[in-house]
Design a protein that fits this description.
Blueprint (H helix, E strand, L loop, with lengths): L3 E5 L7 E5 L10 E6 L5 E6 L4 E6 H9 L3 H6 L7 H4 E6 L4 E6 L5 E6 L4 E6 L5 E6 L8 H9 L12 H4 L9 E2 L11 E2 L21 H4 L2 H8 L6 H12 L18 H11 L15 H4 L10 E2 L13 E2 L23 H4 L15 H13 L3 H5 L7 H8 L1
Antiparallel strand pairs: 1-2, 3-4, 4-5, 5-6, 7-8, 8-9, 9-10, 11-12, 13-14
Helix pairs in contact: 4-8, 9-12
The protein binds heme C (HEC) (2 copies).
Length: about 400
Amino acid sequence: MTGGIGIVEQKPSGRIIQLLLDEPNAYYADPFDIAVTPDGKKAFVSHAGVNCISVIDIDAVRKLISESDDRMLTAYSNYLGTSSRIVLKRIPTGANPKGMALSPDGKKLYVAEHLEDRIAVISTESLETIGNISLGGPRRITVAREGRRLLNNAGHTFQSQYSCYTCHPDTHEDGLVYNMASKDMGRNMTNTQSLRNIGDTPPYKWNGKNQSIYKQDGMRFSTVLTRNEAFSYKELDAITAYIMSGVPNPPNLVYNPDGKLTEAQKRGKDIFQRSHDSKGFEIPVVNRCVTCHPAPYFTNKKMTGVGTLAATDDSILFDVPHLNNIVYSPPYLHDGRAATLEEIWTLYGKTEEHGAVNDLTKTQLNDLVEYLKSLRDPEYEQKTSEIHNASFIHKLFK
Ligand code: HEC
Ligand code: HEC
């Protein structure tokens, strides 16, 4: 995996040019923010995964572009040789540098060292760190916080190409589908899963083969994915502690600003919980949504088949997925084949194995989908009365 910047030429038929900030044997994972000095001479990019800031010489970028033909410019998105021409310096920072801001005169760069609870102050002339502002974070670094730093750091992957965060940004998921198998290329494709609030929803992975987070990120992780040394037991403890401590889902405010179900969602909830179809026939227990997806996590934590095996999948069962905040995790199904919640049933799942839906009208399916979009964490549910209280929202995002 590579990281870099994109330049959009602002002129008729302007091109989009992508330049990597990585070097042949060293990668600068998780570029997060960019700040450009008022004189347009320097740009700063924070690399959240490797604790440093790249300083880019913008005149060198202009020169590189003017000396390159269109074919070369297209090739640069895969070329590790340009960074030595455009990067002036890499400035080390504290843990997990993210947002940045320049002073109005452009002389100082402020960097939020997210997991250091500190703001670094960097001189844009000497390119040295000249001070920092403490945000009064905890003195003691707990095991879970150590795990959080590990999850956000690329130090444990081959040449620092990526971190857990790269695929699980903000402990969520990147919406992409990966082929993780170390053999059998092109088989058993899987859609990245969110890491939010999964402590109570074992087993893990789509195929449910991992009974614990500990196993999920243990030895096999390094064999299959990082091709590097495995986490030490201490590191593994820390990363597991962080995930198990329950990274909260953000509030699902999109569809329920006042915390109440809309009329459509109420109708959808009835369909989700129903035991009889619209003609009054009893729906077999195994075909009812609530059988497999009961509250509070909307999973019975069991393995089952719902007719979604692809031709490229081994013959396996799937761990019933939890559905809180499902609205924020498209695409859907284990291989991400459904771009929207509707598609789970309009394009796929027509055999009735994945819930009885064939008697539903289009409007009823819409209602069911509206209800699915409203699902959220139980702890959050208790707080709905406070939802208009800004300080509560503030606390959640902190
Ligand atoms: C290259 C992208 C990528 C990286 C890097 C990555 N993951 Fe994942 N993660 C995935 C995918 C894809 C799945 C689903 C895998 C499957 O079901 O076979 C997944 C699943 C998981 C699950 C299971 C979640 C559940 O609800 O069952 C956990 C836990 C997890 N990852 C943690 C981590 C941790 C911790 C790291 C870093 C040490 C990490 N991942 C790095 C892509 C990635
Ligand atoms: C027999 C158990 C079972 C029943 C009944 C069932 N589901 Fe599922 N559900 C699953 C399994 C297993 C998957 C994962 C399938 C896959 O990824 O290929 C799934 C996936 C989903 C997903 C996608 C989750 C994601 O993260 O991509 C949603 C949404 C969903 N079900 C909602 C429903 C609704 C609504 C109903 C009723 C109409 C229903 N399910 C009935 C077992 C069931």
